[in-house]
Amino acid sequence: YPLPPYGNAWYAIHFDADENKFSDNDQAKESRDLIATFIDELVANYPVDQDNITLIGFSQGAILSYSVALSFPEKVQRVVALSGYFNLDIIDENFRNNNISNLKFFISHGTVDQVIPVDWARKAPEFLKNLGLDVVYIIVLRFFYKQMTYTTDFLLLLILNISVIFQSCFGGIG
User: Fold this and answer.
1) Are the C-beta atoms of 125 and 85 separated by less than 8 Å?
2) Strand, helix or coil at 148?
């Protein structure tokens, strides 16, 4: 979906006169289902282990990764969610009937994120832990979300946390 002036997004974000943001949840659900279908196509057409799928998402990708994992836990085992938040409105309404016990989450967010407040991100690990899920949550003290700097900070975040990510999501490196 077009997201002026920066390019495209998984779903539209609307702003009101008070500068509040509202996600287009119908478009987000369509994108969630598209990702789930894509996983099926990958498994059917490529040598991909269907019992070893990890979603890594940044911003909207993180929001959708939560949604795909909880809505389709048979397709995903691990989620690495970076600079996103948990949107219950785009998760399948019957997700609590799914077997989600094997899902693992690595969540990280920056305290200086100018797009998604860290307070929004803090709700995800709490919610997931209340479901009895494995969650590793890391707050990064410096993390900007500007067009010119977010790529560098994102890579730095991955490099600094790679051992924690591998340990929590994959059981270690090697």
Assistant:
1) no
2) coil
Residue type, 121: A
pTM of the predicted structure, to 2 decimals:
0.81
Residue of 33, 28, 10 whose CA lies nearest to 41 = 33
Residue whose C-alpha is closest to residue 116's, from 75, 163, 66, 171: 66
- Residue 164 pLDDT: 64
* Structure-token pair, residue 137: 């949550």
Could you tell me where the DSSP H helices lie in the chain? 25-45, 60-71, 118-130, 150-170
The distance from CA 57 to its chain's CA centroid, rounded to whole angstroms, is: 4
Structure tokens at 173: 């490196």
Residue 58 belongs to what H/E stretch? strand 54-58
Which residue carries 């495209």 as its tokens?
8
- SS3 assignment, position 23: strand
pLDDT of residue 143: 47
pLDDT, tens only, 1-45: 877 777 888 988 776 656 576 789 999 999 999 999 999 999 999
pLDDT above 80 for 126: yes
Q: Number of C-alpha atoms within 13 angstroms, CB side, residue 116?
A: 25
Bridge partners of 119, per DSSP, are none
